[in-house]
Known about the structure:
The structure is a homodimer. Chain A is of the alpha+beta class. The first copy, chain A, contains 21 helices and 26 strands. Chain A folds into three domains: 120 residues, Aldehyde oxidase/xanthine dehydrogenase, molybdopterin binding domain (Aldehyde Oxidoreductase, domain 4, 2-Layer Sandwich); 189 residues, Aldehyde oxidase/xanthine dehydrogenase, a/b hammerhead (Aldehyde Oxidoreductase, domain 3, Alpha-Beta Complex), CATH 3.90.1170; 296 residues, Aldehyde oxidase/xanthine dehydrogenase, molybdopterin binding domain (Aldehyde Oxidoreductase, domain 4), CATH 3.30.365. In chain A, 28% of the residues lie in helices and 23% in strands. Chain A is globular, with a radius of gyration of 27 Å. Chains A and B meet through helix 1, strand 17 and strand 23 of A and helix 1, strand 17 and strand 23 of B.
Amino acid sequence: MSAEKEYKVIGTRPIRHDGVDKVTGRALYGADFQAAGLLQGRVLRSPHAHARINSIDTSQAEAHPGVKAVVTSEDLTAAQDKMVNLGEGAANLKFMCDNILAREKALYQGHAVAAVAAINGHIAEEALELIKVEYEVLPAALEVRAAMKKDAPLVHENLKTDEMGKKSEKSSNIASRFQHKKGDVDKGFAEADVVLEHGFVTGTVHQGYIEPHNASASYNADGELTIWCSTQGSFNARGQVAEILQHPVSKIKVVPMEIGGGFGGKISVYLEPLAALLSKKSGRSVKVLMSREDVFESTGPNPASYVSVKIGATNDGRITAAEAYIAFEAGAYPGSPVGAGAMCVFSPYKIDNGFIDAYDVVVNKPKTNAYRAPGAANVAFATETVIDEICEKIGMDPLDFRLLNSAKEGDARVDGPVFPRVGIIETVEAAKEHPHYSAPLEGKHRGRGVASGFWPNFAFKSSVSINVNPDGTISLVEGSTDIGGSRASIAMQAAEVLGIPAESVHPTVVDTNSVGFTDVTGGSHTTYTTGYAAHNAAQDIKGQMMERAAKLWEVDATEVEFADGVFRYVNGKEEEIDFKALAGKLDQTGGPVMGSATVAPSGPGASIGTHVVDVEVDTDTGKVQILRYTATQDAGKAIHPSYVEGQIQGGAVQGIGWALNEEYIYNEDGQMTNASFLDYRMPTCYDLPMIDTVIVEVPNPGHPFGVRGVGETPIVAPTAAIANAIYHAIGVRMRELPMSPGRILKALGKI
Amino acid sequence: MSAEKEYKVIGTRPIRHDGVDKVTGRALYGADFQAAGLLQGRVLRSPHAHARINSIDTSQAEAHPGVKAVVTSEDLTAAQDKMVNLGEGAANLKFMCDNILAREKALYQGHAVAAVAAINGHIAEEALELIKVEYEVLPAALEVRAAMKKDAPLVHENLKTDEMGKKSEKSSNIASRFQHKKGDVDKGFAEADVVLEHGFVTGTVHQGYIEPHNASASYNADGELTIWCSTQGSFNARGQVAEILQHPVSKIKVVPMEIGGGFGGKISVYLEPLAALLSKKSGRSVKVLMSREDVFESTGPNPASYVSVKIGATNDGRITAAEAYIAFEAGAYPGSPVGAGAMCVFSPYKIDNGFIDAYDVVVNKPKTNAYRAPGAANVAFATETVIDEICEKIGMDPLDFRLLNSAKEGDARVDGPVFPRVGIIETVEAAKEHPHYSAPLEGKHRGRGVASGFWPNFAFKSSVSINVNPDGTISLVEGSTDIGGSRASIAMQAAEVLGIPAESVHPTVVDTNSVGFTDVTGGSHTTYTTGYAAHNAAQDIKGQMMERAAKLWEVDATEVEFADGVFRYVNGKEEEIDFKALAGKLDQTGGPVMGSATVAPSGPGASIGTHVVDVEVDTDTGKVQILRYTATQDAGKAIHPSYVEGQIQGGAVQGIGWALNEEYIYNEDGQMTNASFLDYRMPTCYDLPMIDTVIVEVPNPGHPFGVRGVGETPIVAPTAAIANAIYHAIGVRMRELPMSPGRILKALGKI
């Protein structure tokens, strides 16, 4: 489907600006950082899921001649002196610090306990073995429902909340609880002809980015701290390190190196404060790297969860009421994405009577973190499966059911916000019109499933500056780290404004000292917000260039017109000059031209996708094969269609992995038994068909080019779409993720 | 003397922002660049001052297993295909290219002939010996006056200029000639009671920066070229490399590393194109370093010169006419700073009748380049010595003579420009009032000399952007490489505007992709022009912050006042908030604040200094000891007085070295025999008294804070002041530099 406006650059598919560097290996990632006398840092981690730390003896490690610094939580006292009260959520400073280096207790296997810097990595690893930690092993809370029970082991002895998440005299593992209500649920269910309610379980899954975490730091004698790291947000990393080290934010410069994937997992800092402390102590630059095992055990996966959804509908397919109970594992510290889960559980639909009851629960697992549409896939798995069951019960096509119930402009979500223009129905229509949906699906144990996925998208803050080069190109300076092609999608928006080719924009992602504040590349906001800033900065440049043309022609700037990359003056004498030629005349018209813009927009525009999947189940082995997969999604306006398609494909594939294989497998002591890419089974190209994509364009009124974020939505629908397809293939409803061969066989009663 | 306005930050002496990094060794200079698989480059240079290159055989070097690339002038064909006509001066592209790698002929000892990149520096050096060059040695033109003779060996066979510098059928070594005339010189001399004329000779002197040249390059598969180097101007280096390689300017990113001195000598590129070519050919990153010998023999020293000055004056001390003949050695290619010499030769004085005749002459020596007030010291040595002789003849105090004849606002220079407000007389008065000038000077062979030095200063182009941090500091982004404390002097101007401490500004010198065009740190323009841009960018920030305050208070922005770092609203309700507190509220008032400014101002404001020196001459050894030295100088407004004093001291010391010891010593074949810091005798702390400085502040009307450039002026006066002091000590007039022990003894008739 085409957008409403005609563009010259937007909607084309130029080669990404960082492409050649990345495919030829020239791009510098965090691990590539080098410096004279660079030390290597390594981290000692708890082998126990829950243990009191009675003592840490670092003396032997410190005595090793190759070891230049050892740090423990004792070195984080600046922040701990400012310890804030417990129970205040994700920004709790003590929690942030304790997750960097465990203080009284180790709260999960992999929890950092100490770090060393040595003259090489081998010695650093040796030195870890010289650190003697005396642990008192404690029983662990390992699963959300068990952890909510009154007699569960307490992750935090003094997290004083009751089962309602309210302040209490008594401690519990419930960090917080909140509810959303809309209409009259009881009345709604009473109006229903069909009411179904089921509980759904999802496992802990990791973002699985290819590049492990890394951080290098140089802490100079005057307290100026430079950090080189692969992060989704350099300013965010700067802010976190400032808090954790209680060091002025302006004395920290974060240099964002290239990043090999993040998906939300590279927003929180882990190694950065350690590298800084080790550098401060050793007086040298220090690089700290994680192993893959560290990444699994010590960073922030998506929470395991228990979600129960109850939906009522009339026989003619109208939803009358919906209710959800959502309990997410926060991991070792409060702050799961349960809030986002609650935003998404019912939002594709117009629901007049709704109720959402949400819990954030601490367990002895790594502190969870954002993972692509965090929380949304957990809840969509439940909602979209229950809807499929209702459709089956009332004998209605599931896409027709969605066409009937989809939310539209002006409808309010159960959690409050009212939709501006949104393309929910349009994605359902695109799925229904796609040949895939009407294609015959023959053969044994084959089934087709559909599901929709919703993500609200976020609008954060961004800054962009633009400089005009004498050869008619522009240099675009941005603070958004480029994970998935955002250099291109941002550059193209500036190019569109100035009527120059995308290749004439040279985008550079700079450090935190060199551009205005810019939020994380996350929340699907980058192409939206930083693109918005690029649009505005380009408008600034356009205005200045019109003044230059006016000066050149000795006319009034208000009489200069600009269209299709050409400045024109038609009032009496005819003059025209294109952007490139005018850029070559800056010296004679007043010198360099530099423009900038900062934005903090408010209308990111929700995005929805509807997915159709065909599967074949091998009932002997329990293996599910994806035969065909089609994903439709509203992109608002696809700036660079290839990267939108890539995002849809990538999200779908992560969702497929999550649906069929991925999960943290713990032993009874809370130790992860599959912390490698061999055992943590992500899909590869051998497991997948080509993911077919359909970009729907319903322009977002909150962006000058109509952009909506596209990165997160596509991970939301796959789990339910595949569960529904499995049901239609073999007649069993899967309500626990992953739907791995073992669980399939179990559902079939074969084991 | 104090300036007219009161400032809070300007005029104070904060620690420079880059200070701690530099004294602790953390600052990264060009030679510190590292990269995976980095190759080391070295350059093969001509041993002959003048030789035809009949062939270059690189096959053995290329066959060496450790050698990854070899380049010769054959690799510079892109530019040579675009060869421009000869005789067009400094911008001549063929000359630029040929100076990078000699083509038909080697024109000076040290002229680059080939370059290699190898896996380490030792192999690279070995490989140089494997390159076979067949030279046909030619007679060399080695001295400006000899080179101007009709039968002199021709440096360029086809530089077709006559002795007037005009196009001609016949070739010569005179690249160009120009004249300035004012009034009626014959009439002026006729009115004089005293007319004196003398010829003066100066040797070739090097800037002597502590850091040798360096360049690293990474030429990527898509033609994106990154260069890391220690340069005075990253954009200038970018532009030169673009021309030499015929590569788009926007496909070149120059990353300016810290720089260990430049003084004008690090404006031209030498190694940068070689590193780029070697990287392109090898597919790897390449670092090329010069040895100290390379620096002396192959970079751009200040020209040797012959200057004859004739001045007429009345017995009551009024100059009636002045005439100068100036011939500068350009080195191997046209383009000495003789133009600047002509600007300076008479400019401290009001001269109604003047004539200047100037020649640019090629010789078989390295192409000369800028060296701190280029050309000015050559000519001042002549003028200021002749004036001292006139004062002696008419029995007038030399400072009184200058007070009588100094140029003032409204006076025109012989070369044309009319002075705006200028502090020439004020520096003479400051010297006269200084206790030094009236202190008794007793003892044998001791004498006191004075001289004035003039430099017009330049205004180029600069860009600055500023970002506000949430802790109330600002990040200042600039393109001016910081050689002598300009981070501080620029930051302080922004701090003054915003009413925040200098320490609250975090200046960063960024690469050419990350800020607007900014000219070289040279021409004493940086504190002036980039400071001007910082002032304007800070004004931009101030305006935006006033809008934020207005938003916070829900009032009209035009009603917000700002003074002393505090935003105020007094219309009805009283509100006030300081910059820091307001910076903490950006999120709630609209997001990040970023400002920028580009400037191309036109009123740099000339600067003059008057120096007083006491010397003692050892008539047995010929050694001249500097006993006391006082330098006064008009700074317009000294932003950071310590760095102004440092500039005055540094300039004076370089002038002292030039006066007493420094010179290139050539053998008769044109080979330099003293290309080391042991033999090229620069003054050390053991040779010098403390240089006493007096900052005079006559605000420059062409700058918002009254700034004048201060870096170059102080090198102009020392040679003549010392020559005059030597005369007053031992009664001989020295007319050749350096006034080394041998020449003193010769002048005394002792050898």
